[in-house]
Amino acid sequence: MKLVIGARSGQFFDHMHSNPRVAVIILNFRTPEITIDCLKTIASEAEANPGMSVTVLDNASGDESVAKISAAILAHGWSNGWLEFRPLDKNLGFAGGNNLIMREKMALNPSPEYLLLLNSDTLVRPGCISTCLRIMENDPRIGALSCMLRNHDGSVQNVCRKFPTPLRESLHSLGLPWFLPRLFAWADLEDKGWDREKTARDVDWISGAFFMGRTSALRKAGLMDEEFFFYGEDCEWCHRIRKNGWRIRFDPTAEIVHLGGGSSDSTRLVNRRKDILSWKARFQVQRKCYGRAAEILNLGLNLLSFGGRKFLMQVTGNTNRGSYNWICEGFDQLLSLASGSEK
């Protein structure tokens, strides 16, 4: 599709500042109202940060997204330099869509110092981006940064977790961190036990909902792996960034609201498809970060865990419980992935 509203990639920084600082990338997939609300909170940040650009990429929504977002851009006067809206004819997924724009930004001369991946279902609090830029500039070894993400009710949303090493993932697959927490709480991938509201610290990996990356670090580590379509790419990416000597940081002094599930809720992505993508991503992370043997081990243990629970519920007559249907569906999905019949 040829429609482009707003400044073209090479014009952003000439219009705003001779020294480009940060390029924000937002993907839209059938969430036009949510994306527009996000842009409303971004507009003041763009005014406060010379050298900031925003690109909204519509990932072949096939609904009224293009018309609604285009109309909002014109109605709010956002087409005057800081915002570009580009619809695609093909859904490139989370990694592919973001990589498309990141490559363009990194090819500019000069290129922005930072690239910020921002979910469309977020509301940016005033000063958030300025604060994150200051944190990155004050510590040049930070390769990627996430701020505090809150749910709509103000509660803390977990966006930083432990790497799913083969040992941790194996124990997680068998449910041991929950069944025997005194012995295996250390293997809980959610990385509990510290105050996210008050503590800034290095972490293993951060969510892609708010992902500010240093351009020089991303040049060294590479962009997201496009074999991932919807889940897992942020974990594998952080693993690569850390392997290349950069730190991953979480800092709660800046914050956004993350409404959650905007592009993946059941009205936009069929539940079974969403579950399959989630399972597939778990196994892809194992293979890409730890090798093929780790992937096979993880798949086998999950089959054993789900199959064992299904059999136990059958022999004990608990098939009328709601969890039985969930276990059966999970077991069927795992069998499909193992046989190659589910792509």
Task: Give the topology.
Blueprint: E1 5-6, H1 12-16, E2 22-28, H2 32-48, E3 52-58, H3 65-76, E4 83-87, H4 93-107, E5 114-118, E6 122-124, H5 128-138, E7 142-150, E8 156-157, E9 160-161, H6 166-173, H7 176-179, H8 181-184, E10 201-202, E11 205-206, E12 210-214, H9 215-221, H10 233-243, E13 247-258, H11 271-290, H12 292-315, H13 322-339
Parallel strand pairs: 2-3, 2-5, 3-4, 7-13
Antiparallel strand pairs: 1-4, 5-12, 6-13, 7-8, 7-12, 9-11, 10-13
Helix pairs in contact: 2-3, 6-12, 9-10, 10-11, 11-12, 11-13, 12-13
Main β-sheet description: 11 strands, mixed
Percent strand: 15-25%
Calculate Rg over CA atoms: 21 Å
CATH superfamily of the largest domain: Spore Coat Polysaccharide Biosynthesis Protein SpsA, Chain A
Please tell me what the overall shape is: globular
TL;DR?
This protein has 343 residues and is an alpha/beta fold.
Structure description:
- This protein has 343 residues and is an alpha/beta fold.
- It folds into two domains: 5-158 and 196-258, Spore Coat Polysaccharide Biosynthesis Protein SpsA, Chain A; 271-339, no CATH class.
- The chain has 13 helices and 13 strands.
- The strands form two sheets. Strands 1, 2, 3, 4, 5, 6, 7, 8, 10, 12 and 13 form an eleven-stranded mixed beta sheet that branches. Strands 9-11 form a two-stranded antiparallel ribbon.
- Strand 7 and strand 8 (156-157) form a beta hairpin.
- The two termini are 28 Å apart.
